[in-house]
Amino acid sequence: MNLHQKLEARAAEGRPIRIGMIGAGKFGSMFLAQVRHTPGIHLMALADLNVERARTNLEKTGWEAERFGASGMADALAGGTTYVTDDALGMIGFDGLDIVIEATGDPTVGIRHSLAAFDAGHNVITVNVEADVLAGPLLAARAQQAGLIYSLAYGDQPAIICEHVDWARACGFEVVCAGKGTRYHPTFHASTPDTVWPNFGITAEMAERGGMNPKMFNSFIDGTKSGIEMSAVCNATGLTPQPDGLSFPPTPVEQLANTCRPEADGGTLSHSGTTEVVSSLNRDNTPVVNHLQMGTYVVVAAGHDYVRHCLEEYKMLPDDSFDHMAFYRPTHMIGLELGISVASIGLRGEATGAPTGFRADVVATAKRDLTAGEMLDGEGGYCVWGKQMPAADSLARDCLPLGLAGNVRLVRDVPQGTQVKWSDVEIDSTDLAVRTRREMEVEFASPPAAAAAE
Known about the structure:
With 454 residues, this protein is of the alpha/beta class.
């Protein structure tokens, strides 16, 4: 409750938290709009392959030109200004940084940047949940071994959901389910960048005005981003995915505790202690009244008659049996809230969510019948979507991680709705991301769910 006071103190002492950010897209730009107002934080450098776009986005978010006119990292450090560059690895190599923010969205690049940051002695905040799900447990372990912090990005839903889970457990509750809302319909699994805006419920003009990338936003619609984000939550909190992944039940906020409880208790979940994403669309495509499309939630167990009576007396969004209660946040502010992660790490030495194990995976699943010789185009594209799966099952079935399903060639046909396997594609085993993923699998592998239950 005192982060702002501590930031003001750092500013007064003339020793702000010094950060470098990689990626000036939508998330990064939202952070740019706020960090210029935040005491005690100095954005020393902004790296983007498109330097002109980075400068344009600085201007769009209210930065005066003189504030990002540094000629290099040393100049930025000395003058309190920001250096704009296309050399991310060069920026990472500067020893004056405290934190590197990885906001590219490319899993392969994200792994490279994170490992380089650890080598340089920098903490990492990853906006790149794709990289986190591909190899986050190993990245977090490498950071810890180096005495550093690897953290999910506050403002993004996984970190906020991790906060919900931590809050609930710190209050003494058993967490039954945690997750978020989204706009989902089963037909959206076949969505492509050509169909994303009507599926998303906005016009192409609105998307262009907001600088929204159709391929990236399509991953929110086709189910991929939900699988990625809930897998990040599982790996960070100890919750475990349902055997068949997410089912996206249409649910208004008043019914969260009824829906997101185990089937044995009248809900939809396979078990207690899992994740689920609720849809803002009914299966007949009509809108759910009072939905949670942009929000996050946690459902907990009452655990005792006294607590059940409290749920009833104080109207705490209980289920119909008063055995469960929901707590929700109706929206999240994305990059506008990222300063919480910076402050938490820089002032308290605490991550805002980080992997502690490999419990959930996201696997490439065919959107249509795929033919040998085709090149897969990764997240949000025309070929595959990402399905959440228990990590042990993914390994046992040889499923290809969604994060490695970009720019790889199929060597055999894959029918619509089935998972792509490692053996179905040509893989460069020398690639850093592939090697890191394989190393993570060995270090964090657990037995298949069926075997573990015996």
